[in-house]
């Protein structure tokens, strides 16, 4: 494989392994929605081992926002169940590096930052169920427009653990109002991808004042006959990490996920949410 930059259209034709390889080589660093259809995509949260038990408990307390797909051993840059060649340090499209709760920088490679005491948590992502929704004739506007899905802070509170807590973050997709029950029925089959929506309709009911000003991602249009539908989002741990103010913590950049080899329909990991 060459080191020339790859565009989104090229990656849509790649296998999960080849897409990861392109990301690892620095050929692509954009959003991953719509890539590797049928495979689990993962949010990442990486914390020092001394905080890992509290963060694990936070995930268990908030399974809608933080459905766990796997946890690494301290210092290990892999989680075997995600794929034999997955390298957590290089295979997400972008990473956010936090110091004492503040975003220090965004990088595409963690090799120079990796430490022997770091523990990585892989958390399921709502990008995973989008293929099923599109196959059912429900458009995903952020994919059609090649933008990062809009994400918002809310007034929905998480259940805290240790230093981790704060409000739930949600992702939003416009859905035709007459397809809401279809969306709920389809997403119920994807517990590791946040499952059914947490809210549909009035954004102010969950503390979102302006849909045109997402906290992460980019705005998308709500058209006549559509309603905004909101899912628990794997960016919630980033908000919790910012609240915790750890000396060092690392996450994926919102919208830029780690693509796993896990088949969203047949792999037994997909039904596991009791890590």
**Which secondary-structure class do the elements indicate?**
alpha+beta
Biggest sheet architecture: 7 strands, antiparallel
Order of helices and strands: HHEHEEEEHHEEHEEHEE
Please report the distance between the alpha carbons of the first and last residues: 36 Å
- Tell me the radius of gyration: 17 Å
Number of strands: 11
Overall description:
The protein is α+β, with helices and mostly antiparallel strands. It has two domains: 8-126 and 241-271, PSTPO5379-like, CATH 3.40.1640.10; 128-232, PSTPO5379-like domain (PSTPO5379-like fold, 2-Layer Sandwich). The protein is 20% helix and 25% strand. The chain is built from seven helices and eleven strands. It has helices spanning 8-12, 16-24, 49-61, 130-135, 141-144, 180-187, 236-244; strands spanning 39-48, 68-71, 95-99, 102-107, 118-124, 151-157, 167-176, 199-200, 226-232, 249-252, 258-263. Strands 1, 2, 3, 4, 5, 10 and 11 form a seven-stranded antiparallel beta sheet that branches. The chain has a four-stranded antiparallel beta sheet with strand order 6-7-9-8, covered by helices on one side. It starts with 7 loop residues before the first helix and ends in a 12-residue tail after the last strand. Mean pLDDT is 91; it is low at 270-275.
Which properties best describe this structure?
single chain, 275 residues, alpha+beta, PSTPO5379-like, PSTPO5379-like fold, 2 domains, seven-stranded antiparallel beta sheet, four-stranded antiparallel beta sheet, 7 helices, disordered C terminus
